[in-house]
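We read letters as residues; the fold follows as tokens. A sample entry reads:
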Amino acid sequence: MDQSEWEKFNQFNAFCVMTRRGSLLAIVAEGDFSAWCDSEVEDGFCRCFTTFRLRHAPDELLSSGPIRIDYRMRAARVPWPELAMQYRSCLIEETGVIPLSERLDGNPVLAYAAEAARIKLFLATKYPTVPDGSSPVRVHATFAEAGKILDALRGRGLEKAIVTLVGWNIDGHDGAYPTRFPVDPRLGGEEGLKALIAKATAMGYQIVVHDNVTDAYLRSPDLDCDMLSTDEYGERQISGIWAGGEAYKLCPAVCLERYGATLDRIHALGFHGCAYLDAQTTGLFRCSHPKHPADEREFALSLCRILEYVRRLYGASSSENCASYALPYCDEAANLGRSGWEQFRSRLDDGFNRLVSRIVPFYNVAVHGLVIYRSCWSSRTGLFGLYENLGNDWFEFEYTPGGLGCDFRDALDDVEASARIRRELPDLAGSFVEEYRENEDGIFIRFTHDITFTFHTKGGTLTITRGSRVIAVINQNRDEK
């Protein structure tokens, strides 16, 4: 997005400051749907503070909603992990987020997902991405070939998986939203899809689709332009250029009523498991369309309403980029890692980057045990992705390479080793981080249930233990014991 819109993409409603004399955790308790964290550096001093937007244009009425910041101060320098755990307590006690361990009882779909690897199978994509979406469709796996991938995974001992089909719909991944049907005939059509669903079900796997109810493309035959979100000048809001071309944001306040039947139709095909919605909570936008205006709060909570609708259909919901306001409505979050920032910071000037000595997983520490989360693609990082994902694996596979995933054959050894580790740590996803230490030797993370991850910087190894028993020793060069 344009730099002027960066403040829309805050992940959570808090910031903290640590000095030699004391520490401060600031939580925006009210007014947070139109607020962001700012920082300034001048003469060697850094200031962090919250900025509230009271109106968007001079002719608007000032916002009259409540504004409140809770400051939690300590007289000593407190490490950031302790502040992250304080933030977690606030999410539970004051925001009403229910810990994952309490939600597993009585929900077999979620209980399964907490112990499973997410396997995203890229079936078809359009390449290259061009603004008009006219690129040809490339097939990376038919439904029959996807079945062969599942056979290979089961042959390597993967007992629990959330099989997620990417690009099953007409024109492939991000091809023609909000149009999904007919099922793309180049992959085997609806009969081939139902056969794959039946196969995955018989193997004991969950199987769902990679769906998107946020973006829309002008190439879609089902697009109702009246459902698109507009800015204060009446212009359609753009959400990037993807496979289907220039994408526009559907207004979430009305899109469920207009396109919700499609979600029911997808579910009726036989899909079951922790459903995945792409880019669901990725920005505090507002809609100024005269037929369905929505401020930032209504826009965001309308997205959550869609998440909750999908959760009621399937039993559990997953969203890419789960902002803190969506935590009560989401069971799994993707892309909470540092890899996105590392790509992002390369585009910033040297002066700004000098202010950022290192990236710390504050939000990850806070939400571990509240939602299942996956931070990076294990298929690209090997078993060392266990460190970034803290045990929740996420693989992206293709049968015929050349798209966004990797050749599944190249990762079968990692899948087998990962499956062994997960069998030893079935309760890891529902555990809280109780201790997180960083020093020159590495990083030590202790979870409830007596689980520890120790990353040794000098040796480049990750040691996973439970009590006094060593579960695995993983080397950064992908050698594994």
Q: What stands out?
A: The first strand starts at residue 14 and ends at 18.
